[in-house]
Design a protein that fits this description.
Number of strands: 2
CATH architecture of the largest domain: Orthogonal Bundle
Number of helices: 14
CATH class of the largest domain: Mainly Alpha
Strand order of the largest sheet: 1-2
Shape: globular
Strand content: under 5%
Order of helices and strands: HHHHHHHHEHHEHHHH
Structural class: mainly alpha
Oligomer: single chain
CATH topology of the largest domain: Peroxidase, domain 1
Helix content: 40-55%
Length: 322
Amino acid sequence: MKGGLVFFFITVVTVLGVCHGGELRKHFYKKSCPKAEEIVKDIIWKSVASNSTLPAKFLRMHFHDCFVRGCDASVLIDSTPNNTAEKAALPNLSLGGFDIIEEVKIQLEKTCPGIVSCADIVALAARDSVSYQYKKPLWEVLTGRRDGRISRASEALANIPQPTFNFSTLKQSFASKGLTVHDLVVLSGGHTIGVGHCNFFSNRLYNFTGKGDADPSLNPQYAAFLRTQCKSLADNTTIVPMDPGSALNFDNHYYKILLENEGLFQSDAALLTQKGSKNIVEELTNSMKFFTEFAQSMKRMGAIQVLTGTAGEIRRNCSRIN
């Protein structure tokens, strides 16, 4: 009897796995929508060609999406009178590129209605936008994600790592998503492109410990430059490059400035406060090592808590559930 119960349990788990699980895989849409990935790439490359700030936006969108309920495109959902969605949470107010994701979705719906998920579009857009500079894919994107039906601003606040986090909080945040310290340091390299708003780091310039002081771990010359850009703690509109001199180039320059104590955010500087993570920072000053490791960590991040099989849905419009 005991053996029969074990067999029944295994059978149920197997059936549930088939119904609700499934794996991401290469060329998921090869038969159902053969041109899906080509359509995404063409629109994204055309958009990046006329707007060089988009790679940073799409990379950040993908990251913020995956850290809340997994990579399920919940970050794209608009708020309703009954629900304040992730998009409205403070960490997501500066996201951009939603209109281009919608342009991609409209084209895919014309070509293959109800087939390609918004979650896969976000994952592909991040890869394709960053890869435009090199005219070849920088990492592999496995597909087969499905779209979530829930999006809450409170969950974005609770799950997205903040620029003010110290090392232990960052480590805990990444570990909760199944990512390692190695992934944390590697994915922080995404800060080699894009900008930061003054209000997310100006306490490091003007009031680090609440006594009107500066963060002693910040390069004094760099701090002096930042004070010429961010005039006060109240400035919440000015933006500065996260990687001075290389803000539009996806490369490993971020790690070089980090070792010169020119990481913009407290969360950047935190990577140097622990021996293991600092060693990884030093390793990633090797360009080939960075590109190899970034590809692997992006693949792991893109698989966080994904919905596959019959879970979730394929949204017809990325900004609202069906």
